[in-house]
Prior knowledge:
The chain is mainly beta. The chain has helices at residues 5-13, 32-54, 61-75; strands spanning 95-102, 105-112, 116-118, 125-127, 132-138, 145-150, 161-169, 172-179, 188-193, 199-201, 221-228, 231-239, 246-253, 265-266, 285-293, 296-303, 311-317, 324-325, 344-353, 356-364, 372-381, 384-387.
Amino acid sequence: MMKSSEYYCKMWCGWSFIYPPRGMKRVGDRSVEERFARLLAEVFRQFLKMCQRASRKVLWLLPAMFAATAPYLYAQAHPRMYYEDTSRIGVSFAKDPSVARFHGSYFLYYSLPSRRVQNTTTMGGAFLPGWGIGIAQSKDMIHWTKVGELQAASEIEKDGVAAPKAHVIGGRLHLFFQTYGHGPKDAICHAWSDDGVHFTDDPSNPIFRPTKMPWSVGRAIDGEVFQGGKKLYLYFATRDPEMRRQSIGMAESDDPFGFEAGHWRDVSITEPILKPELGWEGECVEAPSVIKRGRKYYMFYAGSYNGVKQQIGVAVSPDGRNWRRLSDEPLMRIGKPGTWNSTESGHPGVLQIGRRTYMFFQGSNDDGKSYVLSMVEIGWRDGLPYVKEDRP
């Protein structure tokens, strides 16, 4: 007995956005790709009804139609940029992205977890200490090739480094990153490169650790440096003395090329420049990424801790010091259930190229057990940012 048109339609659309199988990813309900997929599904549904009215023999066209359309629909299951690194623990774990354009290429820097090694005695897994920083290269910001890893170069870095931020200043690529594994004593370090892959460590590392204050334990992670005129601004995340609540602080240097330790002084002495206040931010704001458009500074930041539905918000400032949120709602939300970023869209790294803005971020669909990296273009309307559709 011939099965219903609904049966065949569901079978064919299992590769599309209409009936995604378990684990299938999707971009978003209002994307051009989904609207196109829904249109295709409806056309196919009507085609099957016609086949039932005409002749069963026409159904041999079903495999041909499936073969012709499934690759396109499957390609849209992930965003255009979907970067994975499985080198450390066997599943993709790449987070904290930052991208810089240097010598005609784009360089992506990101955090890697401690390595998993096989214990031949117990046949179990063990982890070597030391988070690291991966390096990938691209010509189009979509397709990336891993080209290396940053090597720990000093005693303070031996237990791990993470959360890189890359900026081209004075014809060199400067990388700012944090130590890892020192708890309240973690600090910001600095290195520079002439090719984007091989780095020279700053001999004064760590270059910055904030003063202990009533609101700060004296720790600095997620360092972001912005060259504003004749000064350097350093934004960082830090915990309260109980190591429970995370906020964003600021330091500055009067030398626009004064990256070394000793050049920085605390600015946010009495209180942070941004602290968690909204429901979706939980107990944490972190990962500041700052750009300037016109006369205004914009800070893209992550709200909530990793693995706790981290999302991305935006704050604005007239001077780089005093900040207010643009909205009480996230700019970039987590995806819907079953999508590649259903439990996290976090840790932004923003790249400004002329008037165009690109935001790199990390996504997870398993509460932080694995991470992949992606990118969206940010549009601007009346001074307010919005996420553009991820078109092929």
